[in-house]
Amino acid sequence: MLFVALTVPSEGIGRPGREVLGLARRLADGGAPGPVVAGIAGPGAAQAAAEAVGLGADRVVAVTGRGETADRTLLLRDLLAAWERAGGNAGWVLVPGDDAGRELAPRLAFRLNAGVVTDAVQVAWEGGRLETRRPVYGGKAVAALALQGQVGVIQVKDRAFDAAEPDPARTGQAEEIPAEGGSPRMKVVEQVREEVEGIPMEEAPVVVAGGRGMGGPEPFQTELNELARILGGAVGASLAAVDAGWVPPSYQVGQTGKSVAPNLYVAVGISGASQHVAGIAGAKHVVAINKDAEAPIFRVAELGLVGDWKEVLPAFIQAVRELRG
Ligand SMILES: Cc1cc2nc3c(=O)[nH]c(=O)nc-3n(C[C@H](O)[C@H](O)[C@H](O)COP(=O)(O)OP(=O)(O)OC[C@H]3O[C@@H](n4cnc5c(N)ncnc54)[C@H](O)[C@@H]3O)c2cc1C
Known about the structure:
The protein has helices spanning 15-29, 45-54, 72-85, 99-111, 218-221, 223-231, 239-243, 274-277, 297-300, 309-324; strands at residues 2-7, 36-41, 59-64, 91-95, 115-120, 122-126, 129-136, 141-146, 151-156, 173-178, 206-210, 234-237, 264-268, 285-290, 303-306. The protein is of the alpha/beta class. It has two domains: 2-178, 3-Layer(aba) Sandwich (Rossmann fold); 201-324, Rossmann fold (3-Layer(aba) Sandwich). The strands form three sheets. It has a seven-stranded parallel β-sheet with strand order 5-9-4-1-2-3-10, sandwiched between helices. The chain has a five-stranded parallel β-sheet with strand order 12-11-13-14-15. Strands 6-7-8 form a three-stranded antiparallel β-sheet, with no helix packed on it. Helix 3 (72-85) packs across helix 4 and helix 6 runs parallel beside helix 10 (309-324). The model has no long low-confidence stretch (mean pLDDT 94). The structure holds flavin-adenine dinucleotide (FAD).
């Protein structure tokens, strides 16, 4: 069994959930022992059951009636109940790379007495077992790990896998079981939503990011912003630019910032430290502008421009403007 452990808010299954459902479906279609069972907890569980079938689940166990709760211990309890209901004595538990998934994966592994791989960027069915890969040493190396035993937990890295597309023609079996017991030991006292102008960086098809080489906050407001605007994208930054106070922390891309997977990532004045590059593993195309021909960013860039951004970027922006009409 490939058991996809989801906690679903009232808005429905989000991108991280669709990514892990897509992965589970591809694994099952590629020979991994199925079925794909979605165990769903959270306030959106009942409504998400049909959605999960359309996204690739053969069977759904939705634990309903818990309502809104910030207490992940209760959600953990619900996911374990869904696992039991699904017959859970053997199989792989696949967990999304969102906040809840990152917290719940090791806790699920502990409760199931299973091994756990976190931040998996590759999962494949090979030689009768699930082979996984995850970045280690801040993205400087990749570890290959295979889980031993009857049960294993794999939490996937956010944006490392293609999200499942809904197929209304898919059929599957869905059942609901009531959430049992427990009173919340945590409550949300305040929620602060970040205000974003334009497209959020994580959703943008193009990210134009600047680093320490920009030399100050102004180019983020002018050149980088303008290039992002023409390309229909968003502006990002390295930690060095954030630490310098040139842009807010929400702009940070990398290991301790955001992971992005745009079609195009333009890195300007960014050296390409492994911790930065860890956040753009999912980018389809990388273009780098840097005055140092030896900068490590050129190792990951498909197209590299060696030069001072002050000379290169205005011409680059002009050329893009002309191409875009
Ligand atoms: C635990 C840990 C976590 C980290 N997490 C992150 C993270 O999430 N994200 C992140 O970004 N970093 C992270 N870092 C920091 C990371 O190691 C680097 O220090 C940082 O990414 C460097 O930022 P930078 O490339 O902007 O600056 P630098 O490394 O200083 O590079 C600046 C680049 O700009 C070029 N340049 C200078 N002037 C110009 C010019 N006029 N025109 C063109 N190019 C020019 C230079 O040649 C140089 O390559 C982390 C570090 C640690 C230890």
